[in-house]
Design a protein that fits this description.
The complex is a heterodimer.
Chain A (H helix, E strand, L loop, with lengths): L1 H21 L5 E3 L2 E3 L35 E2 L50 E4 L9 E3 L4 E6 L3 E6 L4 E5 L13 E2 L4 E4 L13 E11 L2 E7 L2 H12 L4
Antiparallel strand pairs in A: 1-2, 3-4, 4-11, 5-10, 6-7, 6-9, 7-8, 8-11, 11-12
Chain B lengths: L1 H11 L1 E6 L4 H7 L10 H6 L7 E4 L9 E4 L3 E8 L2 E8 L1 E6 L4 H8 L5 E5 L2 E8 L2 E9 L6 H4 L2 H8 L1 E5 L3
Antiparallel strand pairs in B: 1-6, 2-10, 3-4, 4-5, 5-9, 7-8, 8-9
The chains are: A alpha+beta, B alpha+beta.
């Protein structure tokens, strides 16, 4: 009897583990804000994410959008994206939870932390509504503005990490090169600026830091998703 | 499963950051070149506190559009070109230390080439490591899809080839 029950228990365990592998995980719910785990890209054809890396590389940063809901999902493979389902970029499905990580999404760019060594360097964030020049991108930590380019702004945080904000409206920039700014300072309005080539309305946000291995080192774009999930939860709690 | 184990190992071996050592004996013997014309005051002033070798492409050392943001551990020097922005960066800080036994990161640093050229978000970038510090040159174009400075490697490779040490001290 004991042997039979043990066997039964093992079978249940086996079944449960198989079930876990085949069934997609339900998004995690935090007071109505839902998100899929880090590294789970959507749709599946958009590439292989860095699954299992739940390390918060930038703990306690502020969420980079000042206010309103925000949606992390693919610009390229989302509705209206150039490899996505046909439709409007303003389709309501693009402006809805759950969040989907898009770090390491398929790109031809060198990215040592992505499987295959290539992928998206950061994440794309949509603002609450499909309107350009309405929502401010803000500093995620105290730091200094080191660069303002055609459509890129770099903030070097006190942590030494460098954050890139792309596609802000260039006429709305509130900061200057060399300016020391505080966490939450307005940087510029989220838009579709990519020089004279327009892109979709979103903020591309990434984080670069140097990692030392023995007596060697390398600067790499690290996964921002988990840090942003934590930051967004704080924003929702009213503790940005 | 293999990727998961690698990531798990990585996470367990991450540590806080610090300053990377610079081998100044090699820097002084091989890199520093005396300028035939004194460097512009703005450049000298801007990098006076920097504690790592400062590299600029020789074609831009005397460019009047120079903008400098620097501190002891890093510098960011940019120039406004016609229809593009050029950026030279150097950094001797690190934010995480990983155990040398970590297979993922060990592979990443071992595979590191003398210079790595990549193009992303319309920005052409060259990254390299010298004397222990990390450097990058990037070009961002107003027309990223058609401007050859941002679509072909030639321009950035020339900038890299013409790098000259213009300052920095132990």
């Amino acid at each position: 009897m004991r042997v039979v029950s043990s066997l039964l228990f093992l079978l249940i365990l086996l079944f449960a583990s198989c079930d876990k592998k085949t069934k997609p995980k339900a998004p995690i719910d935090y007071k109505g804000f839902t998100y899929t785990p880090a590294g789970e890209l959507s749709p599946k054809k958009s590439g292989t994410g860095r699954k299992g890396d739940n390390y918060v590389y930038a703990p306690n940063i502020r969420f980079p959008i000042e206010s309103g809901n925000a949606y992390i999902n693919s610009q390229v493979y989302g509705v209206g994206g150039y490899l996505g389902e046909r439709g409007s970029l303003c389709d309501k499905r693009n402006y809805a939870y759950p969040w989907h990580d898009n770090y390491c999404e398929k790109r031809g760019w060198s990215m040592p932390l992505c499987s295959g060594g290539k992928g998206h360097q950061g994440v794309d964030i949509r603002t609450a509504t499909c309107e350009k020049k309405r929502y401010y991108a803000v500093a995620v930590e105290d730091g200094i503005i080191t660069y303002i380019g055609q459509y890129t702004i770099k903030l070097r945080g006190l942590s030494g990490r460098t954050y890139r904000y792309l596609h802000l409206d260039s006429h709305s920039i509130q900061v200057q090169r060399g300016q020391k700014i505080k966490r939450g300072t307005r940087i510029g309005l989220v838009s579709n600026n990519m020089g004279k080539t327009a892109t979709s309305i979103h903020l591309h946000f990434d984080m670069k830091q140097t990692i030392k291995v023995g007596n060697r080192s390398k600067s790499v774009f690290v996964p921002p998703y988990t840090s942003l999930v934590e930051a967004y939860k704080r924003l929702l709690r009213g503790e940005p | 499963m293999r990727l998961f184990s690698l990531i798990l190992f990585t996470l367990l071996s991450l540590n806080a950051g610090g300053i990377l050592p610079i081998d100044w004996s090699k820097v002084n013997s091989t890199q520093q070149q005396k300028a035939s014309i004194p460097y512009p005051k703005k450049l000298i002033e801007g990098i006076k506190d920097v504690r790592l070798p400062v590299y600029l492409s020789s074609s831009y050392v005397y460019d009047k559009s120079i903008m400098i943001v620097a501190d002891k551990g890093f510098y960011s020097i940019s120039f406004v070109l016609n229809g593009a922005t050029l950026l030279f960066e150097g950094d001797r800080t690190y934010q995480e230390a990983v155990s040398p036994k970590n297979p993922e990161f060990q592979k990443i640093v071992q595979k590191r080439r003398a210079v790595e050229i990549s193009q992303s978000e319309g920005i052409m970038m060259a990254e390299f490591n010298r004397h222990g510090a990390n450097y990058a040159i990037s070009v961002e174009c107003e027309k990223p899809k058609t401007d050859k400075r941002c679509t072909d490697e030639e321009f950035i490779r020339t900038l890299y080839a013409k790098l000259t040490m213009v300052g920095g001290r132990p």
